[in-house]
Each structure stands twice: as C-alpha cells, then as structure tokens.
Amino acid sequence: MYRVALRLCGDPAEAEDIVQDAWIAAWRGRASFRGDAAVSTWLYRVVTNTAMGHLRRRRPTVPLHGVPEPADDRPSPEAWALLGERAAAVHRAIAALEPSQRVPLVLRELEGMSYEEVAAVLELPVPVLHKRLHRARAALLVKLRELR
Rounded CA gap, 127 and 117, in Å? Predict the structure, then answer.
C-alpha cells in the first residue's frame, strides 16, 4: 500500500499519511467488502481512492528530494548521477500526468498488476483500461521528450 501511495503522490511523508488514512478507511469500511474480488484488490482500491483524495486536496509543491549518496558497491559517481537524473526525469514525467492516466499506469507498469486487477481496482471495464493505459503511455512519452 505504501509503494502505491508513494508512486501516486511522490512524497514519502504524504505516502505514510495516505497509507494510514487508507487503513482507517479499510477498517471502517470492512463491512462493505463483498468478497467479489481478492482482499488485496479491495485494499488497492482503498489506497488508490485515499491517494486520489489527497491529490485533489493538495496544493502544488516542488519536491526538494536529493539523490541519495551512493554506497561503495554502487556505480561511479558520474554513472550514479546519470541514473539519478534519469529516474528523477521519469518520476517527474509520471507526476505530471493527469491522475486518470497516472493511477492506471502506476498500478500496471510499476506495481505489476494484471489488466484485470487494475480494472477491478479502478472499477473499469478492461477495454476502457486499455485505452487509458495507451493514452497514459503516449502522454508519458511526450512528457519525457519535453524534459530532455
């Protein structure tokens, strides 16, 4: 749940708050779990809804995260910096996507969920999910080209 929240909001502290709120929402809404899907799918839905609520209420900010110091077994400082820049560019591009594109992309590509699982979490038919993912991937490519 934390990993999904972090990838959707981009801020570790906010992700912790989202997960905490999601667990509270899951506990309060446990009676609404019908058992139609796996508990994990239901929890993904809860954390996704909670994260979306946080994102709607959030004011735009610029993250001040730096690249972590490389350990001894890591690549050279130059290679590490290049990897960090590329990763940061991808994260910025994903964060710049509309939530309707970002959420399915994160769940499918970064979390490795199946199309059926993502469709269940987002309560969408699979063909609609395919269209959203196609648009999200195209928008991500445009964003990445803009960041170069």
Answer: 13
